[in-house]
Amino acid sequence: MKFRAKMTELGCMKQFYNIVAMLAKLSKTCILRICPQKIFFIISEEGGIGGKPMVWCELEQAHFFNEYTMGGFSDTHNEIYLEFPSDSLAKSLNFLKVSQGVRSVKIKLTNKKSPCLTFELELMSLVHSRLCVHDIPVIVIGRRQWSTIKEPQLPNFDVRIEMPNLKLVRNVVERMRTMSPHLIVSASNEGVFLLRIETDVTTVTTHFKNLAVETAQGGDQREPLDPSMLISARVDIKKLSLFLASEQVNPTQVMCDIKQERLLHLVLMHEDVTLHYFAPSIST
Asked: CA nearest 161: which of 259, 282, 279, 278?
């Protein structure tokens, strides 16, 4: 197996760091799936291999990398799966917070007594460039385990609505987080979106109206849903709040899908990046 890639565009380096930093907030471990045309960052609910995906992030490699070479497990299974500590990667790429000081980033799959992802950051200075090298230990995931890391099969959602401004939603959720461990996210096919918490002493609801809605598929309902009917999912507010920090990825569009009392699914889209977040509904 082999993997080598290089980034030189300042905007791409900053965006790559923002994605990695967001992943580090959500889980201690992450899986990197390397394919000829795309790379994927995957976080499961339980962490590690085999759990249901919580985050599925898809990046078009041609958008990020000026140079890209990979050779997978075999000609018929031309992919590489690596498990790595997400926090270590975020700290290693800390220079990219201010990407103007970085000339390029090279990424290589190396073997330094054990498999590593080696990052070589070429830093600019007034006199000459400096090279900063970080080795991130990885676990190479064997071919037999690939089947446990599947792209989620999405159900037919009852409502699909475009989210309000993500920064505004994040601020509301942050305030509600201090009052309740759970958040009820609701939407209707009339363009209404609600965030609600319920405690023994109070109920707090924030309303958003006139949002764009895609045609609902109706899920498993035998009869068409009433357009004014609120479709809801109760989710872990702490995990959702951490995910909403991905507003730093600067998505151009955010869609919210809800399957009644089963699943909340958020999709963040920005140029050649698609970020999926899955939150199963918590029963009362």
From this structure: 259
Domain final residue pick, 114, 148, 182? 148
DSSP string, 55-88: EEEEEEHHHH-SEEEEE-SSSSS--EEEEEEHHH
Helix (H) or strand (E) holding 239, with range, is helix 237-243
- DSSP structural state of residue 283: P
Domain with 198, as residue range(s), is 159-280
- pLDDT at position 219, please? 46
How far is CA 233 from its chain centroid?
20
The CATH number of the domain holding residue 265 is 3.70.10.10
The amino acid that residue 260 corresponds to is Q
Asked if 25 and 112 sit in the same domain, the reply is yes
Torsion of CA 159, 40, 253, 246, to 10 degrees: 100
Residue for token digits 């994040």? 170
Does one domain contain both 201 and 93?
A: no
Give the separation between CA 68 and CA 90, rounded to whole angstroms: 21
> Residues 9, 142: one domain?
yes
- Residue reference for tokens 């197996």: 1
The pTM (predicted TM-score) of the whole model is 0.89
Task: Look at residues 125, 148, 171 and tell me which one is the last residue of a structural domain.
Answer: 148
**Of 32, 47, 28, 11, which is closest to residue 119 (Cα–Cα)?**
32
pLDDT at 57: 94
Rounded distance between C-alpha atoms, residue 135 and residue 203, angstroms: 49
Q: Which residues of the chain have pLDDT under 70?
A: 46-51, 98-100, 126-127, 216-225, 246-248
Whether residue 154 lies inside any domain: the answer is no
Cα distances (angstroms) measured from residue 28 to each of 21, 42, 47: 11, 12, 7
* Number of domain units in the chain: 2
